[in-house]
Structure formats: structure tokens, C-alpha cells
Design a protein that fits this description.
By secondary structure, the protein is mainly beta. The protein has three helices and six strands. A hairpin with a 2-residue loop joins β4 and β5.
Length: 248
């Protein structure tokens, strides 16, 4: 007996195979802050998406790709940190390394199929560094670096559809620290010497002219940072990463 079951249109989508093979990173996308609930606790975390182009081509001859989404934490126990390490050959990059430089680098990617609501998806389950002497094939597409806080429409259009949907619902992540409250106005005590206390933007009169800045706040011009400044790392994730086995 036949029963009604609506068929979802998957277009020309071809699922990537299961297994372990060399792959190259072709998209790195910071997708903004998103709210999630785990064990009854709601948190807001920044997400990052990675797209891996596999070496094995599909039926039409084009190379297949798989994507994954995780918390954009660079704590040494986070999944994103592990991905950076794998792309760097198992070595931690130097502080201040431009993450866009990871694009085009190769790694060994292990994938597995997961079925949800009648559809089968291919998920990334592990990523490791390339073995010594092994080189991943050059990407067949132009790599894409996207950051929601520096939105660019042309770059957005080149991202995988999954990343586009997350970027559309994300809130840009601001790395700028909170502005400290202004110091209270100072007035000299009655009958005392008019010497402003420390922390009001003035050097102490006893300090020599060449003394460094004495105030408790930033010196004028210290913010925004210059072109050589680097982002502070994101705080470590407080719980498990988003479940990458569930497609968005």
C-alpha cells in the first residue's frame, strides 16, 4: 500500500562520500552571535563556518565539499582551535596570525553520513594535519573569507547556502572592549594644594616631564587600535559546541 510522503526538492545536490581523504579549506566565515540552549541553559556564542573541498570529484566531475559550524573559540580545548592546529601542520600559529591565511591549506578530513527526517547528510567528524610529504590538491574555486562585522555583499553571495542562512540571523560580534566610564570631575580641597589626584588624565607634578602616562584610563588616541593591533581571542566556550550533525 502506498502512503503520502512529500518529497523535498534537493536540486542537483550530491552528498559527499563517507571516509577519510585529503581536503582543502575553501571558506572561513565568521557568522555572528547566535543564541543556543543546552541542558536548560541559554548562551550566546559567536559561530564560525568552515567549508572543505574534497579531493574526490562528484558524478559531474566537479569536486565535492562538506561544511561544518562551531563556536568561534580559540581556547586550546575548542574544536575551532583543533581545526587551526590541523591546518597549520599540527603546530600552533604565532600570536597575531591572520586567520584568512588558513584558506587554501590542506588537512585530512573524515566524514560520516547522518540521516535526519528522511534525508541523509554528510558531516565532518574529524580533521587532522596532512602527513609529512603529502600535499592537498589546489582548490578548484576561489577561497572565501567572510566576517559579518565587516559585511560584504559580494563575498556573502559566494558562501555556501548554509552559511548565508546563519549570517542572515546572526548579530555582528564586536571585539572592541567596553568603554570605561568617564572619571568624576575633580575639584581641589578647600585650603589645600590644587593637585589633581591620580587617574584624572594628568601627570603628577612630582613626575619628570618624560614620565610615562600616569592616568588610569587610556591615553588620548589609544583607541581605536592601529593597523598592527590584533583581535583578542574569543573567550572559551562554556559548554559543548553546536551539534554539527544537525544541518541548519
Amino acid at each position: 500500500m502506498r502512503t503520502f510522503r512529500k518529497t523535498e526538492d534537493q536540486g542537483d545536490f550530491v552528498i559527499a562520500p563517507e571516509g577519510t581523504q585529503a581536503a582543502v579549506l575553501t571558506c572561513l566565515a565568521f557568522l555572528g552571535r547566535h543564541e543556543s540552549t543546552w541542558n536548560g541553559e541559554t548562551k550566546v556564542r559567536e559561530l564560525v563556518g568552515l567549508s572543505w573541498e574534497l579531493g574526490e570529484p562528484g558524478p559531474d566531475g566537479r569536486r565535492l565539499a562538506v561544511q561544518e559550524v562551531m563556536t568561534a573559540s580559540m581556547h586550546e580545548k575548542s574544536k575551532f582551535y583543533a581545526r587551526i592546529l590541523a591546518l597549520s601542520g599540527g603546530r600552533e600559529p604565532a600570536a597575531g596570525f591572520d586567520l584568512a591565511g588558513l584558506l587554501g591549506m590542506g588537512a585530512i578530513v573524515t566524514t560520516a553520513h547522518v540521516t535526519k527526517e528522511g534525508r541523509t547528510f554528510c558531516n565532518v567528524v574529524n580533521v587532522g594535519p596532512m602527513p609529512r610529504g603529502m600535499v592537498a590538491a589546489a582548490p578548484s574555486v576561489a577561497p572565501v573569507y567572510f566576517d559579518l562585522k565587516e559585511y560584504d555583499a559580494a563575498t556573502f553571495d559566494r558562501m555556501p547556502k548554509r552559511f548565508q542562512r546563519l549570517a542572515e540571523t546572526g548579530e555582528p560580534f564586536d571585539y572592541r572592549p567596553a568603554t570605561p566610564p568617564p572619571a568624576a570631575p575633580w575639584s581641589p580641597p578647600a585650603g589645600g594644594q590644587a593637585v589633581p589626584p591620580s587617574g584624572h588624565g594628568y601627570p603628577h607634578p612630582s613626575a619628570p616631564p618624560s614620565a610615562p602616562w600616569q592616568g588610569s584610563h587610556q591615553a588620548p588616541g589609544a583607541w581605536p587600535p592601529g593597523p598592527q593591533a590584533t583581535r583578542p581571542p574569543a573567550p572559551p566556550a562554556g559548554g559543548p559546541d553546536f551539534d554539527d550533525a544537525i544541518p541548519f
